[in-house]
Each structure stands twice: as structure tokens, then as C-alpha cells.
């Protein structure tokens, strides 16, 4: 088993250093939920289908991320508070390459 | 006043299956849902997505699951109040409840089952400072009556199906239609995208991209919107209506104020027994409830609905003796006079 370290800044601005497993086929949204860094019912509403943008986050580090699918791209086109570094957490799988990733959760909308 | 035995708030899969389990106990159900169609998230968010963990269905589309649940429950003749949101609840002296919707429709029931999922679907509102001030005074999030826009100027913003479809529809109704989207690309059915292109070429709708509505003008009513194209100064478009169409998102809403114990945006229930809330006679089942070990799965909602109906029966008929019957043995007797039952074997000598 291999764990990676991630820094996640929650919606109140508090930064958490957390450890995420790479062998549980988890995505970033699920990691946030497993550590309860955002209130239940305010994140991952669609369950991880890139259909609600409740897991939008800003990528603060220079990691190479999986390419955006058309679904994610279209969802971000409809979402609010979108910045150039916005991604949907549910579309980012936790892999060893993401060790040291820094992200901030977008406001609830 | 609509009267029923069990009033179900939420017409998603859990709410729909409750009709069946209640029907086996000869209890009538009526459902309220804020969406205009039954199915909840399954029909609103992901009708074309497959589900793989419905027992006995290796794969079923969410939309098909809704259709099958409706088919399974139809002989129990459920009532529906759709497109209305349950707003208030009043407990009567006899222990029954009156639930009133945002449109004033009243429902009287012996038992209330909240199967509200993540809450009622509300329009997502863009971040424009004075948006709320103009609600119903030129700002509408849902188009209810297209004739309202007859010979008026309309600005629609959004890039999905509903923005495209309404821009196309209103092109023949309104005097001027402007569609504004943050991207150059629209996400919609191919027909809609092509039709919008055609109308743009004919000069019947204006399309401004990539741009956003950043402000609203007017005193009491909307008279114009401030539009910003990326990297350029804002400009004004005169309009009578601004219609932001950014989809729907679920909010727990008014049921959060019913005096129920809430934890993690969900309603706490007694899972050791019958999924009743802290208010006797009000149950919460499916994704809307929480208890230790809760899983938000459709199949768990079905189980919760089944136990809840047994408890509701005892509550409504405290003195009646009852034992659970298998449908294979007892069949299914509908309120519409139909009866489904296993074919009887014949006993006959073969000569």
C-alpha cells in the first residue's frame, strides 16, 4: 500500500495535511468526504458523475493532472466561482504522481 | 384538501417503492415532489446513467428504474402533487398531519414519510449582487408561462439544454432574445445546438460568447443587464427579463424547519426500529435520513421503506392483528380491482 500526502484548504480557509491512499480507487472528492472536510450534503451531491460541481476545487500546485473530459469541461462552464485552475475533485483519481498536491475547495453554491 | 394514509415527501426511488409496500398493507399513498416529474435524482440528474447495484438487475438505467417502479406501483393508484414543494407541517390533535405546499395545496395524512433525498431541487442562482431584488420583477429562474414574454425583450444566460431550448422557443414569442454564455461552446442535444445556430444566422436570436451577465439595471423592474466579455469593458443590453438557467441543485429547504433533529444535512432516525424521527408519526427514509452506519444507496432506501410501512400500519391500526405475507403466497391486490397471483396448479388425473 502506498499513501500520498495532500494539502487541502477547506471552505473556511483552514489547511489540512492529510494522507490519502492510492490503492482504494478514490478520487479527490471522496478523500475530502472521508476526512469530513466539507459538510455532508454540500459535496459530491451527484455522487461523482461530473454533474453538479459541488466538489469544485482550485489546484494550487504544479502537478500534472488527468486531462479534463468533455463532461467535466462542460460542467465547469456552467458552474459558479470558476477560475483558470478549477477542477472537479471527483474527476481526479488519487495516484502516486499526486504526492504533495495542494488544493483549495471552491465555495458552496 | 387531499387525504391519504401515508403522505410521502419526495417521489424518488425510495418514495415510489413505499407506495408498493404500503399498498400490500392496503394503505394509500400520496406523493409531493418539487420536480415536475417523478423519479427524483434518477430522472433529474442522471436518467441515462446505468446503476449496477439494484438486486437482480446486473445493469439498469436510472430512468428505466423510475419507469419500472411506477409500473410496479400503479395498481395502488398513488396520488401526486408535482412541481410543488412541501413547505409547512401541522400536527393535528388526533395525531394526524396537514402538510401545505408552497402553492397552498393542503394534504391531510395519518402518517408522513419524508423520502426527500438531498432535498428539493432549487434553481442555481448566479452571483449577481442585486439579483434577489429583481426576483419576479424581471428575473425568473424557471419559465412557467411563456406568454409572459410575448413581445418582450429577453436575456437568457446559461450554456446547457434548457438555456438553448428556451432561447429557441422564445425566438418566436419575444420581440428580442439574447443568449449569453461563458464559453463559445454549448452543451446540448445536437438538434438544439444546430437550431440555435440557424436562428442566429437568421438574426432571430443574438448570441454573445464568451461573456457573463455581471449586473442588473432598473428601479423596480429589470430594464437592462450589464454584460462583460472576457477581458473587455462591460456594456449594457436593454431588456425586460433576465432568465438565468444554470440547472438545479438540491437543498434540504423548509423541512429543515419542521422541528426534526438534523445532523450532517440529514434527518436523524431510529434505525433500530422503524426509521421514525424525533416527531412520532413522521418517518424519514432513503438518502434524507442518517443513523450510525447509514449508506446512501437506493437499495437501502427500499429496505427502510419496507420497515417504515410496517410501523406505519401498526400506528394507523393499533388494534389490528397482522402478519407479513409473501407476495408469492398472497399475490398483489390493487386498489383498482386488479389482482396478480401465482397461477394455481391443477389436480387432475391423466388418463
Task: Explain what the structure shows.
The complex is a heterodimer of chains A (109) and B (351). With 109 residues, chain A is α+β, with helices and mostly antiparallel strands. Chain A contains 2 helices and 5 strands, in the order E-E-H-E-H-E-E. Chain A has helices at residues 28-34, 70-78; strands spanning 3-9, 15-21, 56-59, 86-88, 101-105. The longest helix of chain A is centred in the last third of the chain and has 9 residues, at 70-78. Chain A is globular. By secondary structure, chain B is of the alpha/beta class. Chain B folds into 2 domains: 2-121 and 249-320, FAD/NAD(P)-binding domain (3-Layer(bba) Sandwich), CATH 3.50.50; 128-246, FAD/NAD(P)-binding domain. Chain B contains 7 helices and 23 strands. In chain B, strand 10, helix 4 (161-170) and strand 11 form a beta-alpha-beta unit. The A-B interface holds A 39-42, 45-46, 49, 51-52, 54, 74, 77-78, 80-82, 109 and B 41, 45-46, 49, 118-119, 124, 126-127, 158-160, 181-183, 185, 187, 246-247, 249-250, 252, 264-266.
Mean pLDDT of chain A: 93
- Helix and strand content put the structural class of chain B at alpha/beta
Spatial strand sequence of the major β-sheet of chain A: 2-1-5-3-4
State the share of residues found in helices of chain B, binned by percent: 10-25%
Q: Would you tell me the structural class of the helices and strands of chain A? A: alpha+beta
Please identify, by name, the CATH architecture of the largest domain in chain B.
3-Layer(bba) Sandwich
Name the CATH superfamily classification of the largest domain in chain B.
Answer: FAD/NAD(P)-binding domain
Order of helices and strands of chain B: EHEHEEHEEEEEEHEHEEEEEEEEEEHHEE
Dominant shape of chain B: elongated
Helix content estimate of chain A: 10-25%
Give the chain pair forming the largest contact, with residue counts: A-B, 17 and 25 residues
How many domains of chain B? 2
Number of strands of chain A: 5
Task: Characterize the main sheet of chain A.
Answer: 5 strands, mixed
Gap between N and C termini of chain A: 36 Å
What fold name goes in the CATH topology slot of the largest domain in chain B?
FAD/NAD(P)-binding domain
